[in-house]
Amino acid sequence: MKICLKCNKEKPLTDFYGRGSDKVHSYCKPCFNRYSYERWVDKKKQAIDYKGGCCQHCGYSKYYGALQFHHLDPSQKDMDWSKLRKYKWETMQEELDKCILLCANCHAEEHHRLWCKG
What we know:
Strand order of the largest sheet: 1-2
Radius of gyration: 19 Å
Helix content: 40-55%
Largest sheet: 2 strands, antiparallel
Number of helices: 4
Mean pLDDT: 91
Structural class: alpha+beta
Number of domains: 2
Low-confidence stretches: none
Shape: elongated
């Protein structure tokens, strides 16, 4: 048994990520998953703010989940958001500097425009 440092509930070791009694995470799985999700959202909001806070084509800014990062030159793309969000802020900035911020609709239209053009 172990006490989760987040929810302060005593739970069996199987409710924690890790192996053995001395190598398990401090937070239980639900608390750790919530913490990870919140950290991901905070990083995305920070990246959105860094890129101006709204779609650079139409100005949309209602919901962070509808905003995406579009690489201006695909050959310069080192990684996508799913991997980038795991890195330190300086590494994120380097990749974000290669992007513009677009809403999902404008991003889809931009890719269609590029596909039809090529």
